[in-house]
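Reproducibility note. Readers wishing to regenerate the assembly model reported in the main text can use the exact inputs given here. Chain order matters: entities are listed in the order in which they were concatenated for prediction.
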Amino acid sequence: MCDEDRLKLKAQINQQSDIVRKLKAAKGSKDKVTKISIPNAISVKDLTMLDNLLANISYIGGYEPSYADKAMYDVLRGVGWPSSMSHLTRWYQHIKSFSPVELEAFPTGVPTCNNLPPQVVGLLSTNNHGIDIGCKITEEVSHLLNLKAQLGTVEDGSGPHKLILKTPKGTRDYGPSQMAIRADVFNKIISVFKRHGAETIDTPIFELKEVLTGKYGEDSKLIYDLADQGGEILSLRYDLTVPFARYLAMNKISNIKRYHMAKVYRRDNPAMMRGRYREFYQCDFDIAGQYDPMIPDVECVRVVSEILTSLQLGDFLIKVNHRQLLDGLFEACGVPPDKFRTICSSVDKLDKSPWEEVHNEMVNEKGLSPAVADCIGKYVRLSGKTELVEQLLQDEMLVGQCKSARDGLEALRLFLKYCTLYGLQDQVSFDLSLARGLDYYTGVIYEAVLLSDTKTEHGESSGVGSIAGGGRYDNLVGMFDPKHKNVPCVGVSIGVERVFSVLEARLASNKTKVRTTEVEVFVASAQKNLLEDRMKLCKELWDSNIKAEHSYKRNPKLLAQLQYCEEMGIPLAAILGESELARGIVKLRHVVTRHEIEVQRENVAQAVRDLLTKASGNS
Amino acid sequence: MCDEDRLKLKAQINQQSDIVRKLKAAKGSKDKVTKISIPNAISVKDLTMLDNLLANISYIGGYEPSYADKAMYDVLRGVGWPSSMSHLTRWYQHIKSFSPVELEAFPTGVPTCNNLPPQVVGLLSTNNHGIDIGCKITEEVSHLLNLKAQLGTVEDGSGPHKLILKTPKGTRDYGPSQMAIRADVFNKIISVFKRHGAETIDTPIFELKEVLTGKYGEDSKLIYDLADQGGEILSLRYDLTVPFARYLAMNKISNIKRYHMAKVYRRDNPAMMRGRYREFYQCDFDIAGQYDPMIPDVECVRVVSEILTSLQLGDFLIKVNHRQLLDGLFEACGVPPDKFRTICSSVDKLDKSPWEEVHNEMVNEKGLSPAVADCIGKYVRLSGKTELVEQLLQDEMLVGQCKSARDGLEALRLFLKYCTLYGLQDQVSFDLSLARGLDYYTGVIYEAVLLSDTKTEHGESSGVGSIAGGGRYDNLVGMFDPKHKNVPCVGVSIGVERVFSVLEARLASNKTKVRTTEVEVFVASAQKNLLEDRMKLCKELWDSNIKAEHSYKRNPKLLAQLQYCEEMGIPLAAILGESELARGIVKLRHVVTRHEIEVQRENVAQAVRDLLTKASGNS
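Running the prediction on these inputs yields the following structure tokens for the assembly.
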């Protein structure tokens, strides 16, 4: 940058400072919103600049909507541009989709404005018709800061562009301690699946869009699509069940017992404080095959019970019901068949809403007569064990003319009998209010709930909610088979994200530190110039399959090394010292007790192994 | 379908059969390409039908391009439609992007035509100007088949639409045995990482597009973008290194030793026969932090060596070089600095191409003078151990005026010394031809190659190629930090997909069957009506943490149960029989030897445990 340019820039800065001062004064004198009117002048160059900018970022100010978007939207209203400026068009349509109230709620903060390229700030400050003085100040301050940054950065040679560092909306990184908790949960769950002889499969993270089409009803709008870059139309998987059904049909597999733990994607409004993300894990166990009634169905419940017990989440209850019974009940009460599914979703709300509200919805929103709703209400508030099944089987009104209700009840009778054989009688409850949202269930349905309340990481109550759920879906695979050949399936999904929330909350409230490595011994040096000795000892330990670390510094301080061992929960330290090495020995230190023993240099690996075995025997 | 409609359809079929017959006759009489000219008539209804069709599938014929696309493209040339028909526009632009030669190469087969909706076939057969008779026959045959299918499917009540079942291009499902191999490889690799005290992290599968922008040079075109559905602009991750650098900068982490095993995405031309997919695993180990020279660098090599040894892939060699040495060498030979990177990628080809070809490329394509290329050639064909480093340090031409070359060589001297301390002297070779493609390396670079050739699953030679690679990249994190603060990093990536190919090929050639479950005992019944006894015994076994299964059939045949045990490699079968149960005993059968012992019913779990312990002690 030549001196002349610098002087010019400094003059611009002075001028800009004046504008900011004057605006601040104006704001001080009258605090109400004032419009500043400036003539409209948008060149093709400006539009091209905006299109290029928006090729890489979602909003004018970066990755979040801001006041700058609203301001620029106002500038561009009524302005046309060629359709080849697709990024600008995308952005314009997106901003246009917000309501005026939403637009007003865009943040006005300086941090966002700070990130605006100077040309954008220039365009806004010379063109905007509708900026109140407060925001005008923000913009002009940002303009000033940008000019200063330009002067500074041109001088130090780095670019003025700041990258906003974040993960996409609704997603997060998992750090080492979160991963350690997850690995522990996964291992516990997988060991239950393996105890039941399950295999595992994996499918691609994306599917042909048509595979997902028509499977999720209204929720289809939450599916993430991939961009059309030529070739196939793809979407990220929304759950693991539909890819599983596609896998069975495509590979003509007629029986398998499989588990699948993997991430799925939903463009939902994230509620991250409550542990709801757009990218999250699902953990499914399903048994596919033509088998005798209720035998695989009850094993799924046994698997849920073993998992919840193994994870030590506290008391739980597994509610069960049957889709055929629900349909029969609706039929017996006089619900028109085309309303079965919608009334089913009303019933499904009974775990969160009182009967009166659900009754209202049925009558006022879904058009049932009050008598029909009352009839449903008489039944769906019932829950119990086998004796309730027997009682309902005697209920002439319910089972007299309705095969479906009788079939459902008889299936449940068998199911509950098998539950007892599997030792589940105390954990399972027949609950007529359980309905489950998904359309594809055809038989038994279940849902496990935790009975004890737990606080989340953020101190909110995690509520007493569903932790696992599933059921029988005999017709899904047939939707993929060219000859509509069905493979009956029953399965369950463990709400692992909820499990993580509960465990993280518990660890946080206990202030328990999670170990993120499994290092057994740290090789430390007491003096300088022992790097090579440390490296030799590490080699021996690794050769002996002992988990060992040493400092990557040439001459680390002994205190720093020992502190590291304490922080990381490493049980042992092997301390190398000049005089000890001269005597052919090494000190082994128990990090917690600080107790030290001396061992022969050539026996360190064996001595470490012995100490670790002894310690694990004691614990 | 009423009789009248059926008769009409049958008449249509007869007529269509005539067309096919005549066309076949025409083809027989003159075998050269003949144009059939039919008047153009495209209605808005037709266009709407096409737009709807293309909303869900990528090509007219389904998920792969076919002759039908070319034919329809010819039909639609010069026809306009409203921009709201975005799917049709997408498809048209995509087909337009193919060269005439590529269009001609589209498959003409009947299978694709078979899947065409009848309206499309109708549109093609009444409108197409440029179909030769051969293809015309194909189309008309498909029309005929469609009419027949219509008659058939309307009769059996199912829809005429066939769903093509496939995974997206370049992806695949992993079945249980593939997953078992992967789990075994992952466990072996992870146990090495853990032996070195590494933590693990995970990042979202997609990133803000800008995070990936400008990191991969020309390969950026291979990045998968997500569709713009309002909100942020996202892309699937292309590797694990850039998300790692973003993670460090975002969380202001200045040191970590982490591994990350996860899938990455590249829109490359898949070569699935050679194990190259668009969705594949990467497995990275990196050490970030400001440490003393070469200490973390050499540990990465030690990790690679332990992993390759543990996976028993045969002999391997780890080549090392240094970016500073390469730059110094280029400088000393007189390469202009702006050509360093491009000459670097020429050198990188030396593992596959002879020196003469690389020399040619440098001179003829990249404009080096032959003398400069010769000078490079003199060096890059050298490889050796420490003595080569010492020899080059005496080479006045190389190190006389060039600090960079001397620094690189001295770094390598230290590196090789540390390698010896870690017992790696025989596995590591200093190789001046190693260059590595990625721009971001700043120091030592390495690459492990398998020395023994292995056939892939499909009988192709897997070649003697790279199985791991990495190096130091000190400036990548700074690209994300607002203040450009760098975190020096060094790391290595294990080519796990190649490992899987090699292992799968080996298993296939040994005809080894992989166990996909870990079931220890199968609970069988010798007669009918023992389901409840099987269930009770399973419960006891599961309660005792024994992996157990039984048949989901009420009354399975004993032979079928025992065959299942043999197929699945289950070591033990507990056989329940009426007379045995009456005597209070159960037979335990060793599946392979068919040896049976009798144990008390109440002691089955303990007896199974004892037999398994004994068996594992023997093996």
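We highlight two features of this model. Chain B touches chain A through 104 residues (CB under 8 Å). Residues 28-39, 110-114, 129-134, 152-161 of chain B have pLDDT under 50 and may be disordered.
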